[in-house]
Amino acid sequence: MTAAVIEVGGRFMAAQRPEGVMFPLMWEFPGGKIREHELLEEGLVRELEEELGLAASRVRPFMKVNHAYRDFEVELNVFFCDAENLGEMVLNEHNDVAWLRPHEMDPASFLPADRPVIMRLREMSKKDGSSGS
User: Fold this and answer.
1) Which residues contact 121 (CB under 8 A, 6 or more apart)?
2) How confident is the model at residue 130 (pLDDT cuts 50, 70, 90)?
3) In degrees rounded to 5, what are phi and psi of residue 107?
4) Distance in angstroms (rounded) separating the CA atoms of residues 13 and 30
5) What CATH fold (topology level) applies to the domain 2-127?
6) Which H or E element spans position 65?
7) 83 with 56: CB under 8 angstroms?
8) Does the pLDDT at position 79 exceed 90?
9) Residues 15, 45: Cα–Cα separation, whole Å
């Protein structure tokens, strides 16, 4: 699994899952499953295009999260990436998109595997001297 951390002006993209899927209406960093024989970065770029119509570029590793849900485990490979055509984004797989500063992200409203990403972003914003509050 992959996830994208996309930042614009100190705010990060969060996408809300639709109803009728596992973890309905929870927020996540966009991304998804990797196909067989696909590199992680290639899969992330493909998923962002399919789900949001975004053209991702400058994909670079950020962190890896291993999380055990009740019925399955996930290894989430998280990447920083740039995205072009944000103004033309389409919501093919999500209810909504929000742009949030790390301190504005409520971990309880995000998928459990994404929560460590929020914590890392908060740590980084404190080190960078960002207000964070």
Assistant:
1) 5, 12, 102, 105
2) low
3) -55, -35
4) 8
5) Nucleoside Triphosphate Pyrophosphohydrolase (3.90.79)
6) strand 55-68
7) yes
8) yes
9) 16
